[in-house]
Design brief:
Layout (H helix, E strand, L loop, with lengths): L1 E2 L6 E2 L3 E3 L9 H13 L4 E3 L15 H13 L6 E6 L1 E2 L2 E2 L3 H15 L4 E6 L8 H13 L3 E7 L3 H14 L6 E3 L10 H12 L2 E2 L17 H4 L5 H5 L4 H17 L3 H10 L8 E2 L7 H6 L7 H12 L4
Helix pairs in contact: 1-2, 2-3, 3-4, 4-5, 9-10, 9-12
Length: 315
Amino acid sequence: MTRIGTSDLHVFPLALGGNVFGWTADEQTSHDVLSAYVDGGGNFIDTADVYSAWAPGNSGGESETVIGSWLAAAGKRDDVVIATKGSQHPEYQGLAADTVAAAARASLQRLGTDRIDLYYAHFDDQDTPLEETVRAFDQLVKDGIVRYTAISNYSVDRAREWIRIAQENGLAEPVAIQPHYNLVKRQPYEAELAPFVHETHLGVVPYFALAAGFLTGKYRTREDIAGKDRQGQLEGYFSDEGLRVVDALASVAEAHDAPIASVALAWLQTRPDVVAPIASARNLEQLPALLRSAELVLTADEIAALSDASAAVPA
C-alpha cells in the first residue's frame, strides 16, 4: 500500500478506473471486475460524475451508479477508497459554490455512501473565482461528506494558487493531483508539474496510464484501432517513436514473462511521487495484467531502457 500525499489514505499502487462501468462494461461485468480487483488486493477505485455522459443513451453518473450498486451488494464500503470528480456532469457544470455542493451530494446518492474519500475538481473553471471554489471544497470537508480534496487537469500556476488560498485562509488543501502521464505522454507533466508536486507533497494519480490501450501492445497499426470505442484517443498516441516504446516494453515483458501492460504500469509506479496509476478493465480477462503491475519489480537497466525509448516520443 502507498499513501496519498499527506493524507491518511493508504491505497493499492494500481487504481481501478471506473470510466468503463456503465459504458463498455455492463453492470454485471463491472461488478465482477470490482470484486476481482478487491479480491486481488486492490482498494482504490477512481471514477467521475460525468462518466459516461458521452455514450449514446447515457446522461452521466452511470459509473457512480454501478459502483454504488456493487458497494451495496458486496458490503465492501469500508474496504475501499472511493475517488470521484466533479465539474463536468451535464447537470452540474463548473465549480461555483452551489454547483460544487449539489454535484458532490448527487455523487453521494449515486454511490450510495455517506462520504467520498477523495474528491477532485475535475477541470479548472476559470469563470468562477478560485477562492470561491477552494472554499466550496473546504465546506465539503467541514460537512463531513468529503474526507480529502484533490485537483485534476490543473496548470501549475492554478494549482499553486489553489494551495496558496487554502494555506492563507486555513482551508482544506488538496492532497493529490491527477495528470495525463504515461510512457508516451511525459510532457508537460515532467517539466512543469513534477517539481511542483514534489515541493508540495501532492500524491500523483496518473490517468490514461496505458494511453487508452496503446501501451498494452494490442495496437501496432492504425488499422488495428479502426472502429474501436477509443479510436479517437488512440490515434493521438500513434507515432514511430511510440511504437518503439511498445517494442521496448515487449522486450522487458518477455524477460519477466509478464504482460506488456503490466510493465507500462510498473514503470509509472517507479516515478517519484506517483501513488497509483489509473487503469480500467472492461472485462475480467483484462484485470490480471493490471494487478500484476503492483508486484512487478523492474531493474534499473530496464527502467532506463524504457525511459530512453520514451524520451524520443515527440512531446
